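Predict the 3D structure for this chain.
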Amino acid sequence: MFFEDFTPGDVIELGTYEMTEAEIIDFGRRFDPQYFHTDPTAALDSPFGGLIASGWHTCSAWARLWIDTVISKADGRGSPGMQEVRWHEPVRPGDLLTATVEILDVRPSSRHADRGTVFIGCSMTNQHGRVVMTCHGRGLFGRRHPTGKTAASAGAVASGAVETLDVRSGDGVNLKLRMMGGSGPDLLVCHATGFHGLAYRPLAQCLKEHFRVWALDFRGHGASGAAPDGDYAWSGMGVDVAACAAVIGGDRLYGFGHSMGGAALLLAERSAPGLFEGLFLYEPIVLPRGFFAAPNANPLAAGARNRREVFDSRAEALARYSSRSPLGVMRADALAAYVEGAFVDLPDGRVRLACSAETEARTFEASGGLATEEAAGIDVPAAVAAGTVGGVPNPGAFASAVAEALPQGRFMSFEDLGHFGPLETPGVVAATAVRELLGN
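Done. Predicted structure below.
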């Protein structure tokens, strides 16, 4: 079996596996020595009322069936990993487990013509038809014809389809990562405070001739989950970037960061030097140490708390935003994309902001998570850009200092653009980013 033999929507039956008491105890003693996995008598007083298999044992049983049925007959090239592993029901001695795999997506590698990635959904059910384990994963497979393209992948890119992946951040936050299309090296787009990845769809359309473009929703924004304990310290945004970079994988990853997104890219690169091949940062919020140290120092927080959260419809919100500052400066298609992903539907037909006013305010209050003085330790090629149209406050005023602090930083400016530059003229900003990142 080769990469071309996997088709989205196909379900592969992997067969059955019987869990014996002896095997449960042996696995438990070796790898998961909790009493309800190792001692049948003591397990009677456990919350499970008897001996159960370790969840890792269940995963291993699934893996054995997957290898016997598919991998042993395929040009397998390994796996970048699994995610969203869940154990729904206890597995007991004598249970007969049936394993299946659904092919969720296929994607040829943009860098290696001899392989592609197959995205799979995995499950096991017991003899009563109850699901005991599910997870998602990715496998790398060799291609039968290394220079060919699959119809499914070509069609997805041609149609501009946006695929959304679920990613678990390092501290447990559920994130949404969108694959926006394109081919070439991977590029991760990181949005500004209060926005989300889908708002940058017009920018992605201009970038995807040169990159395979990804866009994430930071914690508390768009379709992603809330931050633990309501803590929106920007260090968590850096953790979000790192988690999405791990899912994207590959050996060449670039970053495009707008405002908070630029700071988050730098935080991720500082934590894992070499994570990015190069960065393009539009007015990153990297400020002198102590700039926002005083209580209520960021005036944007107060404005965020006063935002109207509920509208009768997205159409009403779009009409309101298009005629008012600051969102009225956005290009029409970028504003429409922002409104599309900025709301959740309410039972009564109205819509509410997905990023609440309080979440946006707390995110603004956390500004300054990376000080300009700390940028000297981040040794990555980085273009730092700013618009010439100022505001109050004006983050672009600090961009040249950030570029100077970065060991491989360089500064540039865009005439007649403000802080929302990537959403005002996506094509102009994208063309500059391509030139700066790829040198063409």
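The first strand starts at residue 11 and ends at 18.
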